[in-house]
User: What shape does this take?
Amino acid sequence: MTQADQLEGVRRATAILEAVEMIERWIRDIAQLLKEHGVIPEVVGSQVADAEELPLLGNVLRTLAPDRVLFEDAECIYQDEDLVALLAATVHTTGGDWTPQEIHARLDREENLATIEFDANGDPHRMEFEQYGDYINDGFFESLNQYAAVNLPGRFFKYSSLWQQFYLVYLPEPAATDLHQLLQEFAPSSDELAEFVTSADKWTEKGYTGWYLAREVLRDMNLRHINEPTKSGDYVISRLRTLANHGSDWAIELEGEIIGLGADPNPDE
Assistant: This one.
């Protein structure tokens, strides 16, 4: 092994270590928030470590507070009973905040319309939304949010996965508001961002699409430092471009995604 190869190995190991530290800090901040609001009883180190293995926001919340998260295949609507089952699974995430009775549903394939009816606290309720094909349409989630805004002491959040599943999270107020604020304020430094994006191949080695996972993780963070120089004087996009110029396919993909998230494509000019 040449000296250059050894230096590259050290660089990669350091990048992965620092990237994990950024992710761990983010996950622990989320866990501490959930604990302070009584959503979870304590911050468990093993759960934090498990969440680091796939640090998508939906999976982080599912790992820390599994009772508050529904992880479901989006291709799940074939008959009336599937709508009933989906709503029942959604209700379970509310921890007793929502106790509907007499749930009924109907799919109208000719009109591309789905209807769910139920009673709650003695009052009848009706959700109606467009439903095309077998994948649950966004109208279901919009209906949930509309119902929760008026009738529940919490909110639903939908997060994407790397596959066709989705994460549906329910958090009571004020935990929901504070999580939203935390996500707006958590702003990794330019060095942390540079180390994270250049360690995307770590996720590829685990069997994920590294550039896509990195993009999905970063889109839930505040990237206000993305165009600032690192301590070594280069930029996030510059490090990716260097890897891309040396033939890294994932760096080529991630470069475009990072520019889409706000990185200046020509920071040196």
User: Anything to note?
Assistant: The mean pLDDT is 92. The beta strands are 69-73, 101-108, 113-120, 123-130, 154-160, 165-172. Residues 3-36 form the longest helix (34 residues).
